[in-house]
Design a protein that fits this description.
alpha+beta, globular, 2,3-Dihydroxybiphenyl 1,2-Dioxygenase, domain 1, 2 domains, 122 residues, five-stranded mixed beta sheet, four-stranded mixed beta sheet
Length: 122
C-alpha cells in the first residue's frame, strides 16, 4: 500500500510552488493539465497529488495536514511568507500542544503545531 494525499486546488503551478516550499518537496512535470505530483526531495514521505478542480472550497476540510515543528513561531512565519493565511488569531493550546490553523492559497486548512514538552513560541 502507498499513501498519497490529494489536495484540491484551482491553479496547479501556484499550489505546487506553495506546497513544495512548505514541505520541501519537488514538483514532477505537469503532463495532464489536471494533476501535479509532489514528492519529497530527500528520503521517504507520502506523495502529495494536486488536483485541479473548478469549484471553490466552501466548507471546513474533513482531512487536513499537520506540520509538527520544533520552532512554532519560525515555522508559522515561514509558511505565511509564501501565501498561507492564518485562520486562528492566537495560538490554540490543548493538552500541551500549541498550534495555528492556516489555509493554503486555495483555502485548504492545515495546522502548524508544536508538540508537548517544548516551550511554545508565539
Amino acid at each position: 500500500m502507498e499513501l498519497v494525499v490529494v489536495v484540491d486546488c484551482s491553479d496547479l503551478d501556484r499550489s505546487a510552488t506553495f506546497w513544495c516550499g512548505v514541505l520541501g518537496y519537488r514538483a514532477e512535470p505537469n503532463s495532464s493539465g489536471r494533476y501535479r505530483s509532489l514528492t519529497p526531495l530527500d528520503g521517504p514521505g507520502p506523495e502529495v497529488l494536486l488536483q485541479r478542480v473548478a469549484e471553490s472550497k466552501v466548507a471546513k476540510n474533513r482531512v487536513h495536514l499537520d506540520l509538527r515543528v520544533p520552532d512554532f513561531a519560525a515555522e508559522t512565519a515561514r509558511v505565511v511568507a509564501p501565501g498561507a493565511r492564518r485562520i486562528t488569531d492566537d495560538p490554540v493550546r490543548e493538552d500541551g500542544w500549541t498550534w495555528h490553523v492556516l489555509a493554503d492559497p486555495d483555502g485548504n486548512e492545515f495546522c502548524v503545531l508544536q508538540p508537548p514538552g517544548r516551550a511554545p513560541q508565539s
